[in-house]
């Protein structure tokens, strides 16, 4: 018998069941779905990353080997005019010194992408650490770090890089540190803005009210909530650093011979345009395919979050 005299047997449980069935389900977790263009971009980036790791084992020649007597030879088989029996095949020709262009691009991928990734990681280690410290460290620390950052960010990136490298020298470690420190200024602003936004949230106030320490708030509340925007900006920052290091190499202050680098390859082989050579065009296409693909991936990830990530990129 039902405890409610106004309802027949089973009426109350049925009404209760109907009441709970009307409650909305929990929203499903959204999976990242890339567009067709995004999937193509991922494939291109994955291709260049594979080249970075296995490049020296798949390159036909070493990056410094001079394998042709003439400069800017066309794609195909080249036979030496001094020793006709010795022939070599070059898929996209040779550069201004007679070095195999395909091998130079493969080795240059390791140099260009490796320097750029290392610089981006360094920029994030510096920028995120100081940005969060400024957001949670009080007014004096925030003001001091922000004014110091503003002084550096007001200088043009290329100009600052040229001054530092011209004064210290151009080696791969110096390039990594220089690019990392220059772009850490932008990462600092983004991390500080995101952290300040999280610090005024109700859940942070509740955590601090129940006695949680500052380090716990940073690990459990701030970092998880700013991770996705920072991950998206990581791709954009990587593109900017690739273009920055390539620009330095194009100006002659980046990666120095005998190492190959896409930016320096464009500069070295500019005279090949008069001969219709692919030597200055092929490395430029490599830079374009990588940077455009990363941008397309970032756009897809940002669109997946409803555009909110792009709006928070200050």
Please supply descriptive tags for the structure shown above.
single chain, 314 residues, mainly alpha, MetI-like fold, two-stranded antiparallel sheet, 11 helices, 2 strands, elongated
Description:
With 314 residues, the chain is mainly alpha-helical. The chain has a single domain (33-63, 106-313), classed as MetI-like (MetI-like fold), CATH 1.10.3720. The protein is 65% helix and 3% strand. The protein contains eleven helices and two strands. The chain has helices at residues 11-21, 36-58, 101-136, 139-153, 157-168, 172-199, 202-209, 214-250, 262-268, 281-304, 308-311; strands at 76-79, 87-90. Strands 1-2 form a two-stranded antiparallel ribbon. Helix 3 (101-136) packs antiparallel against helix 8 (214-250), helix 5 (157-168) packs across helix 6 and helix 8 (214-250) packs antiparallel against helix 10 (281-304). The model is unreliable at 22-27 and 307-314 (pLDDT under 50).
